[in-house]
């Protein structure tokens, strides 16, 4: 992959739910290690990597609010869940010899360094993975929006959204066997078709800042390297 990478710097958004693996809750060690291995591979190829992870395997603010939690406190609990996942990924990366640092949207020293664009970019420039936790640091924003914001801030070439499906479909392929996959789709089409790729705030932020998005299956080993090499897997949103 050396010298054959399409992207110089990427923001990788990982799903918290995907970290559950087959166990249905928490963090599956095998899935975590598989992700770490894929990430190390692209860093070794010279790609600068920032990562945002969701927290849905531990707690979701919206579902908490539906169960009676105060929405602001529920979202703050969700932010803490992303920090737990970020620490787990950082530990897994360090364990295989890939340097990584956790930055948090709000001050949580010594758990992580308080995020700033310049610190994250500097870390990536030295070959470290910058894992940015805590969403935007504010309630009422999803980790998708946090990912879009950080992708724009750190001047990534692309936002990579690693999911458990291999792209964007006309309908949920897990529920509708007739659903067809898009190779490319515009931000406006995503909105007009009502496709649930990301929330509308995240999609609008990417559109306004000309941040392309690639949605792909992260759970298949080797796919991340294929996306970085420019292979046409997944779906490009532009």
Separation of termini? 25 Å
SS field, number of helical segments: 8
CATH topology: Carbamate kinase
Structural class: alpha/beta
Estimated share of beta-strand residues? 15-25%
- Unreliable stretches (pLDDT < 50, length at least 5) are none
Arithmetic mean of pLDDT: 94
Whole-number total of structural domains? 1
Q: What is the annotated CATH architecture?
A: 3-Layer(aba) Sandwich
Number of strands: 11
Question: Class, according to the CATH hierarchy?
Answer: Alpha Beta
| Sheet having the most strands | 9 strands, mixed
The helix/strand series, from N terminus to C terminus, equals EHEHHEEHEHEEEEHHEHE
CA gyration radius, whole angstroms: 17 Å
Per the principal axes of the C-alpha atoms, what is the gross shape? globular
- Percent range for helical residues? 25-40%
Strand order of the largest sheet: 4-3-5-2-1-6-10-11-9
**CATH homologous superfamily grouping:** Acetylglutamate kinase-like
Characterize this entry briefly:
The protein has 238 residues and is α/β, with parallel strands linked by helices.
Summarize the structure in words.
The protein is an alpha/beta fold. It has one domain (9-194, 210-237): Carbamate kinase, CATH 3.40.1160. The chain has 8 helices and 11 strands. The chain has helices spanning 29-44, 61-66, 71-95, 117-125, 143-153, 187-192, 200-208, 223-228; strands spanning 9-14, 48-53, 100-104, 113-114, 129-133, 158-163, 168-169, 181-182, 184-185, 213-217, 235-237. The strands form 2 sheets. A 9-stranded mixed beta sheet has the order 4-3-5-2-1-6-10-11-9, with helices on both faces. Strands 7-8 form a two-stranded antiparallel sheet. Strand 1, helix 1 (29-44) and strand 2 (48-53) form a beta-alpha-beta unit. Helix 1 crosses helix 3 and helix 5 packs parallel to helix 7. The chain is globular, with a radius of gyration of 17 Å. The mean pLDDT is 94.
